[in-house]
Amino acid sequence: MAIVEGLKHTSSLVVDQQHLASNVGSGDLDVLATPMMIALMENAAMLAVAPELVEGQSTVGGMISSSHLKPTGEGNTVTATAELIKVEGRKLHFKISASDNEGVIGEGEHLRFIISKEKFMSKVNNK
Fold it and tell me: What is the pTM of this model?
């Protein structure tokens, strides 16, 4: 298989205490924290291409730009969808969005890079 435009994945989570801004430290309200929404979007992008990678490869995030338009309370389900819209060698460009039961709560763009796990981790371990 190959990494081609159009690959898509949707990840979901039920908002609980660990996902709230008041617990994450990104705010003081009991609503879904923006960093948790972003993490879910990144997860969807990672999983969209993971089955197409060769052994020893992974992807890492390089940039993410997203709005967070509406609050989501504890107990609600949030889904994040990532669609691969452009491939430039090792650079993967995604369109991302997140929704709850009332509609879109955030949307944006995400850039990931295909990397060799061994090479990547050797840079970390040699610091």
Answer: 0.95
